[in-house]
Design goal:
Structural class: alpha/beta
Helix content: 25-40%
Oligomer: single chain
Radius of gyration: 21 Å
Largest sheet: 7 strands, mixed
Order of helices and strands: EHEHEHEEHEHEHEHEHEHHHEEEEEE
Strand order of the largest sheet: 2-1-3-4-5-14-13
Shape: globular
Amino acid sequence: MVTQARSPRRDESVQIGALVPLTPPGWVEAGQHLLAGLELAVGEVNDAGGIGGRPLELVVRDTAADPLKAEAAVDELAGLGVAAVAGEYHSVVARAAAARADAAGLPYLCSSSVLDALTEQPTRWVARLSPPQSRGWRTYADFLLGAGHSRIAVATAPSVYWAAGTGILRDHLAARGGTVTELDTRTLDPTAVCDELVASGATALLLLAGTPEPAVPIVKAVRRDARLAEMLIGAPAGQPEFTEWAALLGDDGAAIPFLRYLPERLTPLGVRVGTALRERLGRAPSFVAFEGYDTIAVLADVLRSHGTDRAYDRARTAEAWPRVAVDGTRGRIRFSRTPGINVWQWTWAPIQVVDRDPAAPDRFRVLHAG
């Protein structure tokens, strides 16, 4: 017998706060992909009858990559009575949101931020879908070593995130005979970066700095310097994933390996969702869009288990993290306590090292998986 999905009552929504970078200096394209995944999943939840017959509603707040805006948004959303908070792409912003959510006793499912120290102390209120930076960037370091690169230079900018990444790379490479040389983009223009690369003897340059400035001018300078014709350029933070990168750099933006969080094969759900996301975005969805969809899939599953009372118990939601077992677009999602990580973590989120194919820059090549 086919059961007709119950139509949600539109006057009693279950609200989830969504933190998304939608204006500069936030990475707007990442925010658009994240929001597309969140919205698609919310629509499907509601088409299936909502949460106990009530519609799921996103209350979106633009963080613009500003930790203070994220803190204010979490405070506002907590006061509005949302059942949980979700989202964010920028790690430093997500860290601020996580601290505020922890203090407020508000469940927060972080979609796409990787900083290991998402909270300073262990918390029961916060869970995360994306892999921790230490795991992803060690995978990237293994890729470099496998490709014959042990002398690495990093073009850096001031940030807790970039500093953490540099430390992970240095420790992992040093244990295997490698070295890391830091080039400060505050004091070195792109031409000076090229000169320092030549002097360092590095065979790979990693862009640990923002886009488009200073990353794009550095790429252009290195590509045009005959002394650096064999230099590998890498961007572990994922700058080449988005169309803005290709639009700004053209062929120069190809063959620059980056991290993305997709499996070798999407689940059947992931294939279907990928098609829907492509239609919604008008272009191929990034891994961030899939993270957005999976965020709502997890929260909807958790909230459904709490019945249909109007006042959802936030403490019960947080207590459900270790019991989550949800089939997402990229695999079975379960949370556990990972050594060195203070939040509930999807331990085996997929990791790939990918680049844009020089023969067809709109196509991605998988170079390594971890």
